[in-house]
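Hey, resending since the last one bounced:
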Amino acid sequence: MADAKIIDIYGAGLAGCEAAWQAVRRGVPVRLHEMKPQKTTPAHRYSGFAELVCSNSLRSNQIFNAIGLLKEELRIAGSLIMEAAYANEVPAGAALAVDRTKFSDYITEKIRNHPLITVIEEEVTALPDDPDAITVVATGPLTSDALSAAIASLTGADYLHFYDAAAPIVSADSVDMDKAWEASRYDKGEAAYLNCPMTKEEYTEFYKALISAKEAALHDFDTPDTDTGKDAGLTVFEGCMPVEVMARRGVDTLLYGPLKPVGLPDPRTGREPYAVVQLRQENAAKTMYNLVGFQTHLTWDEQRRVFGMIPGLEHAEFLRYGVMHRNTFMNSPRLLSADYSLRTRPNLFFAGQMTGVEGYIESTGSGFVAGVNAARRALGEDALFFPRETVLGAMAAYISDERVTDFQPMNANFGLIPPLEHKVKGGKKGRNDAFAARAVEKITEMKENGVFDRNE
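The structure tokens again:
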């Protein structure tokens, strides 16, 4: 192997850690710059790398779902994040959820102890002056003002933004199990959720309280645009919409969203309740549970009052209240190539939510692709563009598609993937199975051809 340039990676979140791991797998040394624990953002609480700041769920683990397929692609290709997730899994029915502390500790230990990775605990406030320096910027959706300004100055393009929210976490022993019960929807997998049932009357009173509850004031980093004087409002991403905002869309909206009762018969009555609030296991010890779909911007007092109206949570102990913060992302189709490099400066890569991918695993995927390509650049090799038939390739194509004019953050979905070459039976399920089989074949072929082998 020829001598490789060193790669600087800014940010030790999911994308940054994955990018670093893929670079050193190929024998390329990395300097990983991380401002924690010296400085944190309003959303971070833990000192470890790859912190999960919202839910501990990595969503569906079923391969006929696009996010489940993305997990399988990453697993086959040798993702550190997926290795850590499966090593620290907690029961979550058909979903993959992790003990967030053990998950972070696992990744932190791997990164800090790798001989080719040097961790530098400092805040990065500027981009390298040298255009030949190979750099991956993975500082996340709460990138500091100074670095954001540096990126904006280089790209000449405006940033976009939206609001993101996290759900509260309660102590397991404070949930009244005389009212709640353990089960997964349709009894899939282990009984990984606590379920709190509501009658129509209880739901109606809860709904009225929720839509009229007091919201928290915006933080300094969430203030409206001071240059235009316009009120930014709460422009939220659909996948993380605050429960109170969702509720205001109509009295029945929650019944088809986070409070849907289908597949959850109450064992005491044998019937599905009018509404059900689910609590998902947060850690392996089952001492903490989060309120599924209850991302919120309510004040802490109002969270205690309104969520305390949920049967079984009347005396809940809140270990973490829901919070809301602004996420910033780039207008990537105007700026980035499908290897996540800046078109005007190909040695500068971006990864994670700041590129417009949305979600833990999607961020990991972007870090994987950026890390592989930064390493190839350091080794003097051509860029690697993943097949569009894979979720990894489809996401990369979406964020780099210059035809996209109204760019918005995007979760992994089969709508990004090219149609099948032939018709299949079985409706949507049959189609998705065929998508999955085709993608797995593509990734497996890349693996067998040595694309993901260690370069030693």
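DSSP finds eleven helices and 17 strands in the chain.

Sorry for the duplicate.
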